[in-house]
Amino acid sequence: MSGAVTPRVPPSPRCAADCPDAGLRAVPDACDPARRHFLATTLAATVAAFLAACGDGNIGGVTGAESGGGGVTSSGPLVVVLADFPALAADGGIARVDGGGRRPIAVARLTAGTFRAFSMICPHAGYRPIAITGGGFECPNHGARFDAQGRWTGGQRASDLAEYGVTLDALAGTLTVG
Fold first, then answer.
1. Model confidence over 145-176: pLDDT tens digits?
2. Phi-psi sector, 129: left (phi>0), alpha (psi -120 to 50), beta
3. Contacts of 162 by beta carbon, 8 Å cutoff, 6+ apart
4. Straight-line distance from the first to the last Cα atom of the chain, in angstroms, rounded to the nearest whole number
5. CB contact at 8 A, 64 and 99
6. Are 178 and 165 in contact (CB under 8 A)?
7. Cα(103)–Cα(128) distance, rounded to whole angstroms?
8. Which residue of 43, 55, 112, 143 sits 20 to 30 Å from the alpha carbon of 25, by its own alpha carbon?
9. Looking at domain 62-177, what is its CATH homologous superfamily?
């Protein structure tokens, strides 16, 4: 059947102004409302899936105000339940903590009862998040490296990581940041 004919229908009034062909058009066409709806829905779902894959999903173990962006103290102190972060059970452990709409922070356990909390935003260029790597931190954007105490140790020159005050409640097993 070499002479197959494509059916032609008049353009719908909804997309007649958008179609370059004011006369009859072949089906399917870019002006077809069903195709536009499908493409818009598919694009929205793809973007949502991509954005969900970018996060690590780790918001467990965090309580406190959940609103607002900015720094850790922008919406009050952040309370971290230490048992929810296995990396903080041993000396030298570091865990990323995301608290609702807050910027990500890293909590480091230096020794038993000694914790420090740092911003995971690179002080050089504002790149986020800094990666936790083998007992320290590294900016994947430009290679600056920091030790577990937030001090710059190598790579592109940057200031030390911003630090937040912490208070340990050993009986409750919580750490209050900010």
1. 888 888 888 888 778 888 899 999 989 999 99
2. beta
3. 118, 119, 121, 123, 150
4. 76
5. yes
6. yes
7. 9
8. 43
9. Rieske [2Fe-2S] iron-sulphur domain (2.102.10.10)
pLDDT given at position 123: 81
More confident residue, 9 or 144: 144
Which one has a higher pLDDT value, 44 or 137? 137
d(CA 97, CA 94): 10
Which tokens hold the place of 33? 């409302």
Residue spans per domain, the chain? 8-54, 62-177
Q: Which helix (H) or strand (E) holds 27?
A: none
The pLDDT mean for the chain works out to 72
Q: Which residues does 82 contact at the CB level (< 8 Å), separation at least 6?
A: 61, 88, 89, 173, 174, 175
Q: Alpha-carbon distance 161 to 120, whole Å?
A: 8
